[in-house]
Write a structure and sequence with these properties.
The longest helix is centred in the N-terminal third of the chain and has 16 residues, at about 1-15. It is built from five helices and no strands. It has about 100 residues and is mostly helical. It has helices at about 1-15, 25-30, 35-40, 60-75, 80-85. The radius of gyration is 32 Å and the shape is elongated.
């Protein structure tokens, strides 16, 4: 009687643990990465632009270098929070 009860309990336990061996997300695995590819494709304005070899009209090199230099200088040097626009840490510990 005890032996048959133990075997019955072990069979029930084995059947209860059997679904743990089954893949739980077969449909999700098939579509893995699809949302990322769709997002990247939606950001392309003109897919045919890669075949266009004509140069763009725009800013010349000297003006671009000057604009970039002014942009980089606007951040200031390391440790100079007054020019960088960064927030200065403030202590929030109450003083009694």
């Amino acid at each position: 009687m005890i032996a048959s009860l133990r075997s019955c309990v072990s069979i029930v336990a084995a059947l209860a643990l059997l679904p743990a061996c089954v893949a739980t997300t077969p449909q999700a695995d098939v579509r893995f990465g699809q949302s990322v590819r769709a997002m990247l494709a939606s950001q392309v304005v003109d897919p045919a632009a890669v075949r266009n070899a004509t140069p763009l009209n725009g800013i010349d090199g000297r003006a671009a270098r000057g604009a970039l230099q002014r942009y980089e200088d606007s951040f200031g040097k390391a440790g100079d929070a007054s020019r960088s626009g960064a927030a200065v840490p403030v202590s929030v510990v109450p003083t009694n």
